[in-house]
# Entry
Amino acid sequence: MNYELTLFQHFQPNRKTETTIETIATIWHCSTRHAKTQLHRLHEQQIIHWETFQGRGKKPFLTILVQEMDVLLDAMETLWQKSKFEEAIQLAKEMGRLNHPNVQHWLTIRFGIQHEKNRHVFRQSMYFVELCLDPHQALSRHDIHVLEQIHETLFIIDDAGRVQPNLLFHFSTQDAITWHFLLRKGIQFHHLQEVTVTDVKATLLAGAFIYKHSFEIESIEVIDRYELVVKLKNACALFPYFLASTRLAIVPEDGQKNIGCGPFMLLEQNENQLTLQAFQHYFKSRPWIDCVEIVYNREFQMDAIRYEPFEPTIPSRKIEFEEPGACYICFNSRYGPFVDEQLRAYIWHAIEPSDFILAEENEKVAYSWHLEGEGIILPEPEQKPKLPEMLVIGYQQIRQGVNHEEKAKILQQQLSEMGINVKLTCINFKEQQNKVNETIDLFIGGIALGQNLILSLLQSYLAEPKIILNFLTSSAEMHVKQLLQTVVQKNADPMIFHEIEHFIQQTYTVKFITQRKHTYYVREDTPYKHVQFDKHGRIDYRNLFYSNE
# Structure
């Protein structure tokens, strides 16, 4: 309890008020003895004037000598110095002062890039996100973004989209089946154990199931501490692209998923805070920032970065980016009423993508997985087919509260206007899905394309629950699988992906609807001045820096 703040709820500042020690003890929910101790402390600190008199029946007087806002900010500062960020914000809320301009300014200047105790800290306030920091199980963009700070992979994808060795000093293959790998020397995990081939072997064996649709490991031979040979059951020319996936980041042989060899160490993760600390022995360029603190909090959302422009008098910079990938609708052409191609074509053409834009500043109509994609012109049915009485729409869920239900309801409305009854059902991608194509007629979801573009496109078709492949007719599925197998085994022309994209539209199986875009405005007169963003719009912790310029 903050004793002095509680007094403001019962006494006016600078007003001499008669009271009793029993009344004060009741207000503070304590004994009279403890109340006397606290009153004398506050009197000595000149926060209050406590005036008592000798003689029976003479009541003391209390005068508050300070302003409530000053006391509140001092109390918040005390909590802040103890890293009790959530408690500081909660205190302001309890006092009914969270939205007061002074409190908002106080909080704003304590987030962003800070210089504290001879170290530079980036502190960010955001809503709580349940993270999965097991690379093998990670799914969401939030998961991957944090994992990329902690871990490293055998290969990386450069800015041109090409695969390059990362933890590897050298690699070679003659047939895309047998792969010879030589590790860099001296790379350390965060617990200062050197990264060796035993860690690589353990990671690959534990995580190979993730991409079993494209390669299977027959054997891994350890030559010495830094050299090993991986033999696959079948040729996989894209093997380095899979090994560049964060989901196959190298972890210690004992399986400690929170220990990596990346630029930041994980110090703390709970429902209140996520803390990362720069790794002093990082084998590449050490981050300039010393620490990253993510404060989970729904009460105060920082005003230094917003989606709307600031007033013209406030210095700011505008950041715009678009996300590759798309939200799409998939028609079940294998089971149910959409086996009829004429019906698929009719509904495909009847769906208006622009109706699915929930906010124009954040979305645009999609024509492809790619940002530069163009619309495809397909023939419309010559006559209106008989419409089904009932359809079931399944919508994708990545994690609790993050799903495509809103867009599913828009589709439901469009179909209802055609006289079709619709039932909605949630498809949780974190749970195993069996025979989805036998239970739903339409699916609405989204796919985000990452830096590893080839792997992202492969995963969009081959990762479970393989919605698109399972919604194609059996012959169409076989055709797409053969094209994908050509890419995987022979590292064929990536233009094959464009061929597949056209094919799934020409069969009226996939309808692209929206793509995400974002515009940020960053205040230049706050500690966010030098915040850097990566090409996907996420804050780039590795390149943050602080300067007084």
